[in-house]
Each structure stands twice: as structure tokens, then as C-alpha cells.
Design goal:
two-stranded antiparallel sheet, 8% strand, 178 residues
Length: 178
């Protein structure tokens, strides 16, 4: 508790630095088995059907799933990593399954202010005033993630991803027509 930022502006700076380092939040909403089957269809995972079948038991909750077809940028990220590192050839089935689980996410941009407001809404952070140097009081011992708030935020980001994917498909279709 001694290392927690004590003022609003310090916490916002900490959140912003953390977000820059991680390039946004990771939402583990892709189905790992779908990722594996996609890599198999591209010839990047050969003879790993059992890994893909095993991963079906590790799907994200239905309410939070995002089809791989709506996450083109993340699909490209995963494919590029496998191609660059030749991961499937070097890994055991267990290692490959763990890696696929760890990569079955989409990046979402979340502002420091959104994180701060989510902490306040969850009643695990109290801010004494509206000024940047307002003092903070943390109440993390009773923290229960507000799933409805996270779901709303995810749905907004998923809609944005879907719109970007649709626009990208539309643009590539019009280029192919030329």
C-alpha cells in the first residue's frame, strides 16, 4: 500500500505508463481452438489437431467471445509470430497449447481516465475532490470486478473492431475489383 500513488494525477500517470508499455489492454476473447484451426488451415500447425481439440475446453465465456474473423489485426499478429519463430515445430503439444492460450487476445485501447472511473465505480477507489492533486483512498480488499461494466466496455470495443474489419474487407474488395 505504501507504493500506491496517493494523488489522482500520479495514479493517472502510472496507468498511462503501464498502458504504453503493454500497448493497450488485452482482452482474452478469442477462442484458442479457432486460432489453432486457423493456423492449421494456413499450414503453420501440422499434425496438431489434438492440441486444437483440447483447447475447446478453454473458450472464453460466450458473452465475451469474439470470432477470429472480426479480429483481423490480431489474427495477423499471431500468424506473423508463428511464421517468424517457427513455434509449432519447436514446441511440445503442452507448450503449444499454453502459447495459443496466451495469444488468444485482442488489444483494446483503454484510457487512463476510463480505468480510474472503473475503479471508482467498483468502489475500490475513492477520490477526495476533482482536482488533479486530489487524495486517493484505496479499498481493494473487497474488490469484486463489475462484470457488467467490463462487458459494456468490451462490447463497445468489439463493435469498433467489427467496424474496422468490415471497412478493411470493403476496401480490399474494391481494390480487387480494379
Amino acid at each position: 500500500s505504501r507504493n500506491r500513488p496517493g494523488k489522482r494525477d500520479k495514479l493517472l500517470n502510472f496507468i498511462e505508463r503501464s498502458a504504453q508499455h503493454k500497448k493497450g489492454a488485452r482482452a482474452f476473447v478469442l477462442r484458442p481452438a479457432e486460432v489453432a484451426y486457423d493456423l492449421m488451415s494456413k499450414g503453420l500447425l501440422v499434425g496438431k489437431e489434438l492440441v486444437a481439440e483440447t483447447l475447446k475446453a478453454h473458450d472464453p465465456p460466450v458473452a465475451f467471445r469474439l470470432p477470429l474473423s472480426e479480429a483481423a489485426q490480431d489474427c495477423e499478429r499471431i500468424t506473423a509470430t508463428v511464421m517468424q519463430r517457427g513455434l509449432s515445430m519447436k514446441m511440445s503439444a503442452d507448450e503449444l497449447a499454453r502459447w495459443l492460450l496466451s495469444e488468444s487476445y485482442v488489444r483494446i485501447a483503454v484510457t487512463a481516465e476510463e480505468v480510474l472511473q472503473a475503479l471508482v465505480s467498483a468502489k475500490c477507489l475513492y477520490i477526495d475532490g476533482d482536482k488533479s492533486d486530489a487524495l486517493l483512498d484505496y479499498r481493494l480488499e473487497d474488490f469484486q470486478p463489475p462484470l457488467d461494466a467490463f462487458q459494456k466496455l468490451f462490447e463497445e470495443r468489439a463493435q469498433t473492431l467489427s467496424e474496422v474489419a468490415a471497412q478493411s474487407l470493403k476496401n480490399s474488395g474494391s481494390q480487387n475489383a480494379l
